[in-house]
């Protein structure tokens, strides 16, 4: 647990948290959508453009070498952060969505193959698979969930077979915060020779990650949900698998030799990095990782667990509230979604907004999950390292106010 002083010190590094909205202090609890950025990260962006800016890898001049060195340094930093075997297994993408699209379009999928996802998935881990299934005449299978939203693993064991080409599952649900038993799913899938992709958008900085221990084939995540910039993310892939799948996009950087007769591709990771990457994003992300490592992922995880526990306790006392995802905070990350009586989530969200509270409302990029719960949408609260117990109290009181106004 962090002391009051530690939290204040962390908060003081986030300039936006000092802002007021509609004359109320900002309570930012929409962190599952994107986190705020600490001052070091903000400054790192300026510093990149004023001291480094150049294109990478092919330049022999000083700045190009400096930019290349910094980019490759961040690649190694990410390798260490997720405990990958080699930095060539770290491919820079636009983010989780692009990473999933990369895998969906690059692995070989044939007519009659099966792809398994779950009811819990974010649209970005549903739609790419639907498209590929349509194109290749493959079949999409869905792991069902129980009433609290937990995956029905016995049903998964029923779905998986030698026909399964890939299993693609989120590590932490962006709606319910449920931490899925991915290690079990991975080892079961491997028994049948299926590949596994984990959508880890909600994971880095919230759970310690060891891709080798998980034995996962592909792992996707974004910088902006871990205090870094938007428009940059990673696909981790096992080297021997990446070497044997098709490139995703083509152009400069991903080639070794080009002639009109035959083009050969670069080695990993460049084979999958066509064109000029988001150089600034990569370098600034490095600063965000330093920020996270200084506090420690385990510490962030424990603190968020305490926040979630307290929020579940407080919010469940509100008459007419429906909390989704069960009450066991130890099986969840700091996300809590709910509906209040018969009120529409947009109405609840709008009044909270007027009181300075930033929450997410609507289908939360998971319409199948909304259908499962027979709702159009939910209100989602998601915590970060800078949130406080006092903010949860303020949310609690504000929800009582919402009820008073609307009911
Ligand atoms: C945010 C999120 C995504 C999409 O991430 P982008 O950064 O928008 O590409 C995918 N899956 C989950 C679980 C998410 O939370």
TrEMBL record:
<dbReference type="GO" id="GO:0006534">
    <property type="term" value="P:cysteine metabolic process"/>
</dbReference>
<keyword id="KW-0663">Pyridoxal phosphate</keyword>
<dbReference type="GO" id="GO:0031071">
    <property type="term" value="F:cysteine desulfurase activity"/>
</dbReference>
<dbReference type="InterPro" id="IPR015421">
    <property type="entry name" value="PyrdxlP-dep_Trfase_major"/>
</dbReference>
<dbReference type="InterPro" id="IPR020578">
    <property type="entry name" value="Aminotrans_V_PyrdxlP_BS"/>
</dbReference>
<protein>
    <recommendedName>
        <fullName>Cysteine desulfurase</fullName>
        <ecNumber>2.8.1.7</ecNumber>
    </recommendedName>
</protein>
<dbReference type="InterPro" id="IPR015424">
    <property type="entry name" value="PyrdxlP-dep_Trfase"/>
</dbReference>
<keyword id="KW-0808">Transferase</keyword>
<dbReference type="InterPro" id="IPR000192">
    <property type="entry name" value="Aminotrans_V_dom"/>
</dbReference>
<dbReference type="InterPro" id="IPR010970">
    <property type="entry name" value="Cys_dSase_SufS"/>
</dbReference>
<comment type="function">
    <text>Catalyzes the removal of elemental sulfur and selenium atoms from L-cysteine, L-cystine, L-selenocysteine, and L-selenocystine to produce L-alanine.</text>
</comment>
<dbReference type="GO" id="GO:0030170">
    <property type="term" value="F:pyridoxal phosphate binding"/>
</dbReference>
<comment type="similarity">
    <text>Belongs to the class-V pyridoxal-phosphate-dependent aminotransferase family. Csd subfamily.</text>
</comment>
<dbReference type="InterPro" id="IPR015422">
    <property type="entry name" value="PyrdxlP-dep_Trfase_small"/>
</dbReference>
<dbReference type="Pfam" id="PF00266">
    <property type="entry name" value="Aminotran_5"/>
</dbReference>
<feature type="domain" description="Aminotransferase class V">
    <location>
        <begin position="27"/>
        <end position="395"/>
    </location>
</feature>
<dbReference type="InterPro" id="IPR016454">
    <property type="entry name" value="Cysteine_dSase"/>
</dbReference>
